[in-house]
Amino acid sequence: MTMALETVLAKAGLRIDPAEFLGLVEDAARRLSPPATDPADYFSPAQRDVLAEVGLDLTPRRPDEVDSRARAVAADAVLHDSALTVGDAAGVVGVDTSRIRHRLAAGRLAGWKDRGGWRLPAWQFVSGGVLPGLETVLAAVPDDQPPLVVAAFMTTPQADLRLEERPATPREWLLAGGSAEKVAALAATLGTPA
């Protein structure tokens, strides 16, 4: 298994020891949700009745059913592994580490505090700087949205952002010179019902 995992990590461009990566996966699984949860446990009896009336299935996962958390756990592990430290980000942007911390505090860069200090998602950086329009987009992201949701939004094609007749990710759109305000308008809806 270790050899296969090393191969997968190498193909994905992730420079990490397989055992460390598996530790990230375990941490992500623990953070994202407890194992073997019964969906009905999250609701009162009255709420369960209403949800059942509208057709929501609250039955527990079958033992042979794939765990729906697996994709999110893997994405979270990759997000954490590929994130930059403050020092790494300062090197990319070409500024002192104090400037990176200042941008984090002002919401001009996205990041989270981890055991070893601040971690900054790689999607927001380009060679020699930050993604064009980043400040405009980050200002629109609702405060309650976790880094994984923001990363998924920035790296998932959006129907409203089109490059050469195909949906583009917000990151691709901004790199191509697209309007930051258009991405910000989409970002502002994160966490709201569709």
UniProtKB/TrEMBL annotation:
It comes from the Bacteria. Keywords: DNA-binding. GO terms for molecular function: DNA binding. This is DNA-binding protein.
